[in-house]
Structure formats: C-alpha cells, structure tokens
Design a protein that fits this description.
The structure is a homotetramer. By secondary structure, chain A is mostly helical. Chain A has two domains: about 1-50, Arc Repressor Mutant, subunit A, CATH 1.10.10; about 50-180, Tetracycline Repressor, domain 2. Helix content of chain A is about 75%, strand content about 0%. The first copy, chain A, is built from nine helices and no strands. The first copy, chain A, has helices spanning about 5-25, 30-35, 40-45, 50-75, 80-90, 95-110, 115-140, 150-160, 170-180. In chain A, helix 4 runs antiparallel to helix 5 (about 80-90). Chains in contact: A-B, C-D. At the A-B interface, helix 8 and helix 9 of A face helix 8 and helix 9 of B. The structure holds a DNA duplex.
Chain lengths: ~180, ~180, ~180, ~180
DNA sequence: TATGAATGAGAATTCATTCAT
DNA sequence: AATGAATGAATTCTCATTCAT
C-alpha cells in the first residue's frame, strides 16, 4: 500500500472515531470524508461501505487494545494490578464504539453477518479471552471476589470503562473496583 | 378524549416502547404505526412529530418511575432498602430511553429545546432529586459509603439499572450494590 | 333542506371565501371546517370534495354577480355607466377565485371536467355574455373604443377589477377606464 | 463549478420555469427533476429546498430583467419608448413567478424571511427603482399622465405584462398604454 | 346527523452509494 | 487515484377523504 494511501486511510479512521465520539452515530459519510479533508469517493476507495468502515474502526481499536493487554500481561504483574492499569488505558479509548458494533451485528441476526464483522467478533473474542484470563488470575490470587464468573468480571469492567465520559478514579470506576474486591 | 382514541394513543406509546427496546432508536414512524395496527396518520394525530412522540414516551416512563419512587418513599423504609427495592423496579423498565432522549436534547444545543423536552427535563430533575434524597438518607444511615456525592450514587445506580438487559441480582447490580456499601 | 343545514352550508361557503382570500389557496379542509365552527365530517356532508366546495363557492359568487348585472341592466342606463357602476360592485367581491377555478379546470383538460365545473362554466358564460352585451352597447354608444372586441373589453375589465386588492378609483381602474374610452 | 454541474443547474432552472409556467405552482420536486432528466437528489445538491429553488429562479429572472432594463436605459431613449420596448421583452418572460414569490414571502411574515428571499427582495427593489425612474422620466417628458405616481405606473405596467398569457399588442397592453398617455 | 379519529397516498428531504470527470 | 456530482430508496410529515362513535 502506498504511503499516501496509508496516510489517507488512517486519517479517515481517526476522523471517523472523533466525529462518532463527538456527534453520535448520526454522522454522515460525507461529513467524515470532509472532516478528513477528502472526498467521499476516496472514502469508498478505502472501505466497501458504512458498515465496513465501522468494522474496520472497531478492528483498529481492538488491535490497539490487544497490544496493550498483551504488553501488560507480559509484565507478569498480579491480575488485580493489571485490571487497575487497564482502567487507565481503557477510559482514554473510544471503546463505546465496540458496544454499538456488537449491538448492530446482533440486530442483523447471526446469518447475515459480514466477513468484516466475523473478523472483528473473532478478535473481540480473543481480547475478551485475554481479559478473562486476567480476571481469573485476580480471583485465584484472592484479590477479586469469587462469586461471579471471570466473564462477568470483564462484562462489568467493560460496562464501566467503556461508558462515555469514563475517567480513571471517578465515582463509577472506584465503586466498580471496590465492589469487585474479595 | 374519545375512548378509542385514548386506547390508540396508549397502544402507540406501548408499541413504540417495545420496538425501541427491541430494535434500537432507528425504528421508523411507519414501523411503529404498523406494529400498533394503525396508519401513520394516526401517529401524527396524536403526536406532533417523531421527537414529540419520543418525548411523550419519556414522560410516560418518568411518570411511572416517579409514582413508584413516591410510593416507596411513603413507606418510610431505610434508604438502603429503598435503593434495593428500586433495583427490582427499574431493571424491568425501559429507562434506557431516557438516556438517549437526554443525549438527543443535548445535541441540539440548549437554545433549540422544545417545550416537550423542557417538561421532560423538569420531571427528570424532580425524580433525580427524589432519588438523591434517598441516596443521601442511606449515606446518613451509614449504609452507603460517604466518599461520593448522592448525585454520584444515583448516577451509578442509573448506569447500572438502565443498562439494556439489566436484571435484579445479576453480577453488575450485585457488584454495584456491594461497591456502594460503607 | 332544513334551516340549520342551510345555515351550516352558508357558513362554510362564507368562511371558505374569507380564508381563501386571506391565506391563499393553501387552506386545508380541516381549517375551513374549524373556522366555520364545524367538524370536517359536516363539511363533507355538504360538499362532495375540495373541488366540489370550490366550485360551489364559485357558483355562489357568480349567482350574486349575475343578480347584480341583471339589476343594473334592468335600470336601462347607458352601457358606460353600467361598466362604471360594476367597478364599484366587483372590486368588493372575491372574484379572483373565479380565475383560479378557471385555471384549475383548464389544467385538467376538457375531458375530465366535473359536473360541478360544467355548471359553473355554463353560468360563467352566461354572465360573461351579459357583460359583453353591456360592453357592446357602450361601444355602440360611442363611449368605448371600437378597435377591440366586446370580449376583450370584458377580459380587461375582469383583469382589473378581479385583481386582488382592487379598489374603485385606484390607479389601475382609472387607467383601464380611461384606456377604454373611445 | 464543474461544467456538467453548471449545465445541470441551468437545466433545472429552465425546466422548473417551464413547468411552473405550464402547470402552476403545484409542480412537485420529483416532477421537476424528472422533466430535467435528473434525480431528485441532484435538485437538492443544487438548491437547499423547494423555497430555495424558487428563490433562485426568481433571482435568475430578475437578473435578466435588470440586464434588459439597464441596456435599454443605456440607449438614452425617451422614457415612453423604453416602456414600449419593455412590453415586448416582459411579455415573453415568466415574470408571474415573481408575484407568487412575493406573496409566499409575505405570508411567512417579515421575521422569518430567508436570506435568499432577502436578496431577491433587494434585487426586486433595485429593478423596480430603475423602472420607476423610467416612468418618472416619461412623465416629465409629457408622455405619461401626471395624476398617478411613478410607482403606480410601474404597478400597472407589471400587472399587465406579468399576467399569464400576455402578448405585446394584445388588447390589454394596448389599453394600458393608451390609458397611461397624458 | 354531527363529530373528529383513522387512513394512506403523495410531497419534501436525506444520505449511503455509484460513476463520470 | 481523487474528486464530488448524480442517483434513488427510505424517511418524515401533510392533508383530502372515509368511517366509527
């Protein structure tokens, strides 16, 4: 891929993320293209359609999240500490998009699932798996209560840090972390 | 108001609530009308426009919530118990709609706020006030931790019970309640 | 026809005329009914449809015009004087409606002409005939120039006095009358 | 602006003028688009909405009228002759549209006047000013009667030549011109 | 009979997507 | 390859007309 094409593609993804965060899911393709300093045509050269763009953005976010999780896991810290560090990372990321993507996909029914969606779901599952491992470890270490499943721990964790406007150390994250303690 | 008109109006509100819960905010006026067994025209006889319909539905939900809160407050129970009882009520109600209404209103900017929206915001504020009183009481009773404001308690509470798919006693509500304890 | 039905009918015609004059051809049936203090249902009991109502209104106006013309003709005045007296009458009447009716009818093509329209056209022709007689007499008396047909005299006359906002003695009517002189 | 876009825009304006003249103000956007050999979307790319399209058409007509008036004024002819030449020009133009635009604008009330409407009114005023100058000159030259204002002369002039179906030399224009003579 | 609620076809408008320049 | 003009299906909303109360 040529350098300028790559640059354009990244600009689109970034701009779309910003606009989506700022103005909700109603932003039009035209607006995204314009905000990225491009024409719609160029946008469609890079992404097959709106859904495709959203999926790719989701992939982008997930890739970065996976990288972060992997690097934290590599540092061999206690699970509880990893969860706390992840709060810091996640609250700064536009993870809310992942939720709406998941909902949109669910709506369509399992059958009509795009290739792009399948890839994302795959990746999502992988990342969730990693996170659940961390949660499980934290439970085995006695830091997190044992009366809920690791999956539920992560569900909770996501609900908290993915919520729009989440900040590390705000009331909701503090209560969530305290509530998770054994 | 004629009996049949009243009945239709209620059907519309109920149907719209169901569809909105089931299929997200993208449902069209036509779909709502069809699902209610009516023509679009009838929707527009009862509600000025799409926004108006949504606002009225929000009012409907809020009125019922206020009634519930008032009745609980009237029973002079400890604040903590009221909060727990409210979990049971709220998780069965389509409160998520209130959030999306609030977001939509915010988008338009303060100036362009409709009369309907203003009323709803008013009512919302009233209900929130009642809830914060309950939270405050629970804190003074020593049941809820004191390091967060009553407003934050309620914010948390809402985030948990308004989330789509919330069930009383599920992991998220349990953790939230445990995290709130003093 | 019962007295109250007659009264309702007249109210509708009068109200419709007023609204049409005041707010243009965009007034809705509902508005007309409401302004007449009735429901739409009642309106449709008296008139088959919108077009029918307009035609009837046209008939109403035409009947009164014919009566006026006949009475003036009966007074055996010189043609020129009759024309001048008619200016006074016509500028106070909502004759503009007749033009728009004529245009609407023309649009539909000759074939699709309603029974109501046919009657009105008939009556219109009769009145025009009477007026042309007057014009012809005025020409024979030497008061009106002879280089245009009586039909043209009346066309002119109508264009002037039917124009919205026409007042006897205003610039346009004076110029028209002066221009018509032999 | 791209050449083809320019061409399409002009086609739209021309087609709309024709349809409006032929079928009255009820023509739909879809019809205009179809008649221009385009999709509705294209109309909306070029004009913000129906009103916007009409205003632009009005501007178009007015610009051409102003150019004509200016060129006639530049030829330093007697006022009376200019008026007569203008009859020839005006009767071939769809000036009736300007009247209906003025009425539509008036209906909305002064406050809600669009930017487009304001521009048009401005231009209309300018052209009317030019025409009144010509009328005034014709009066000073002794060709036009002095007992009416230049404004009234032009009002009359417009009423005659803007009327649908006006032809130079038809009865109405001849009478108007004769009536205006001193 | 009078009323006004219900209906649905039709008009304006938006926006994802395609295609000519 | 980039651009933005063109497209038309989908959506909101209106209003003449019908029909239940």
């Amino acid at each position: 891929m040529r350098a300028d094409a790559r640059r354009n593609r990244d600009r689109i993804v970034q701009t779309a993320l910003d606009l989506l965060a700022e103005r909700g899911p109603g932003v039009s393709m035209e607006e995204i293209a314009r905000a990225a300093g491009l024409g719609v045509g160029t946008l469609y050269r890079h992404f097959p359609d709106r859904r495709g763009l959203l999926e790719e953005i989701g992939m982008d976010v997930l890739h970065r999240l996976r990288a972060e999780v992997r690097s934290l896991v590599g540092r061999e810290l206690p699970g509880w500490e990893v969860l706390n560090l992840l709060v810091g990372y996640c609250t700064g990321q536009p993870l809310a998009l992942l939720k709406s993507l998941a909902e949109d996909t669910a709506e369509d029914g399992a059958g009509t699932c795009t290739v792009g969606a399948r890839e994302r779901i795959e990746l999502q599952r992988e990342v969730t798996g990693l996170l659940e491992e961390i949660a499980g470890r934290a439970q085995r270490e006695g830091a997190v209560r044992g009366d809920i499943t690791p999956g539920e721990v992560i569900e909770l964790f996501s609900a908290t840090v993915c919520r729009p406007g989440a900040r590390p150390g705000d009331a909701m994250t503090r209560v969530m972390l305290d509530g998770l303690r054994a």
